[in-house]
Amino acid sequence: MGVPPRVSREAVAQESPTEMASGIQDAQRRLTQQILGASGVVGTALGECAGTPCIKVLVVEETEDLRARIPEAFDGFLVVIQETGEIRARPARE
Asked: Whole-prediction pTM value?
């Protein structure tokens, strides 16, 4: 996967690191609010995909239904699906 069509690598490179971090964090927050309740979605994360900042959607199992519901790009940032299996909190140590 590459950079979404509406955002060129050159445009991304022109943003300062602070602008980039703020923008992708805001985008991640909004995307998380939209999809976190969906069956099979366990979280989101920020990452780098092919040298470009991206948003990762963490899922129990990647399915056709989830691929259809999760956008390939959001607010100009690439979105990738990452299969993680179930994520559970560890029990507290006593």
From this structure: 0.74
